[in-house]
Specification:
Strand content: 15-25%
Oligomer: single chain
Helix content: 25-40%
CATH topology of the largest domain: Creatine Amidinohydrolase
Number of domains: 2
Structural class: alpha+beta
Radius of gyration: 23 Å
């Protein structure tokens, strides 16, 4: 990575206009692939992908803002109240008249009659956009369904189709400018690991570690934190996928996953540490997790499939679990973009039977886990698929189990 973190007048760094145009064109291509006349998006990440706009995290999942993209027309953004005025001033890539105030029905958290009227009025405005662009008789690709809105779409005689298929396919292949942002996002997590290894010691609680990570990343400009796992000692096996207020103690293994977003683009980046000392058992399970991860990384290149990656991992029974459902997530891969989980998904649970092609421009994380007794080790790396192979963009060392706060 050669870029600084800020836009500047003296270097060409990230071309945001090119990135927005690429994303919009990808969405249009997938509308054609899935025979959609339009896309109607309520998912914040899909709205950002199509319109290049976002609003604070408090809007996520509330159906407060949405956008509609007719196949041949311009995107129309429905924004919260006076936030629409600011976007008319600050987002010149959208036509000002296409940035309109929304009137949400709060996912039903209002009087029933108000919910029905408000959702109906919103769909009537959307239908008018579709009629203007002559696509009202074609399927509308919807991402997030909600019952008041589904009733309003039915009453408006609009045909609804699965819009997530189109959007996840659009977002699977990243353009060069997206990949630049993705690597910048990963570099911030490199940086926070350098801070946190000096912070973790006996007597510090898991939630204190999480707070330190959140503060450092927020101070450096991340715009969202999807979640942070911090798991220590006997909580580490089996993997609980969360954090608690447990005190970290001498001899513990601690593993951390950092899921943050910079300029929208997500990370998923595990590292495991030993506190004050490491037993031979801890070193052994760590090496297994590392070897499994490295084996899956080594095969990544254009032309393989997700089955080639998944087949490098041990089976659920090899890891001591009854089936792949019970072991799901312990050896897994997943795409990363504006969402923390995107295509491609990689798991022995389904990739061996339903392999998907790996192509240049994909960005995904691979993660492995090994546990024995009260000890569990988790490691994860993020990769970009390049023309000739792959590039690992998560740089904090993981070749050996790192011991912190030795005494």
């Amino acid at each position: 990575m050669t870029l600084g973190m800020m836009a500047t007048d003296v270097e060409n760094r990230i071309d945001f206009d090119a990135m927005r145009n690429y994303r919009l064109n990808r969405a249009r291509q997938m509308m054609e692939k899935y025979l959609l006349g339009s896309l109607l998006c309520f998912d914040e990440d899909n709205i950002r992908y199509i319109t290049g706009t976002t609003l604070a995290e408090w809007t996520r999942g509330k159906f407060f803002r949405w956008c509609v993209l007719p196949r041949e027309g311009d995107p129309v953004l429905y924004e919260v109240g006076t936030a629409a005025v600011w976007k008319q001033r600050l987002c010149p890539w959208l036509k000002p008249e296409n940035i309109r105030p929304s009137l949400p029905w709060h996912r039903g958290a209002n009087v029933h009659e108000i919910n029905v009227e408000t959702a109906g009025a919103a769909i009537a405005e959307i239908k008018a956009v579709l009629e203007e662009n002559k696509v009202a008789d074609m399927p509308v690709g919807l991402d997030l369904p909600e019952l008041y809105m589904l009733d309003a779409l039915r009453d408006a005689n609009l045909q609804v189709a699965n819009g997530y298929n189109a959007m996840f396919d659009a977002r699977e292949i990243k353009c060069p400018d997206e990949l630049k942002v993705i690597e910048l996002s990963a570099s911030l997590v490199d940086g926070v690991y350098a801070q946190i290894v000096d912070f973790i010691k006996p007597g510090i609680k898991e939630n204190e570690v999480v707070a330190q990570i959140m503060a450092w990343l927020t101070e450096r400009g991340v715009d969202r934190i999807s979640g942070i796992n911090c798991v220590s000692g006997p909580r580490s096996n089996p993997h609980p996928h969360d954090y608690s207020d447990r005190l970290i103690r001498p001899g513990d293994l601690v593993f951390i996953d950092i899921m943050s977003h910079y300029l929208g683009y997500a990370t998923c980046y595990y590292r495991t540490f030993a506190i004050t000392r490491a037993t031979q058992n801890q070193k052994d399970i760590y090496k297994k997790a590392y070897d499994w991860l490295q084996a899956s990384i080594d095969v990544v290149r254009p032309g393989i499939t997700t089955a080639d990656i998944a087949s490098t991992w041990p089976s659920a029974k090899d890891m001591g679990y009854q089936d792949e459902k019970q072991a799901f997530g312990l050896a897994v891969g997943h795409g990363l973009g504006l969402s923390h989980h995107e295509k491609p998904w990689i798991s022995r649970a389904y990739s061996l039977k339903h392999p998907q092609p790996v192509v240049e421009g994909m960005h995904f994380a691979l993660e492995t886990f090994c546990g024995e007794g009260e000890d569990g080790a988790r490691i994860e790396s993020q990769l970009i698929v390049t023309k000739d192979g792959h590039k690992v963009i998560t740089k904090w060392p993981c070749e050996e189990l790192m011991v912190l706060a030795p005494r």
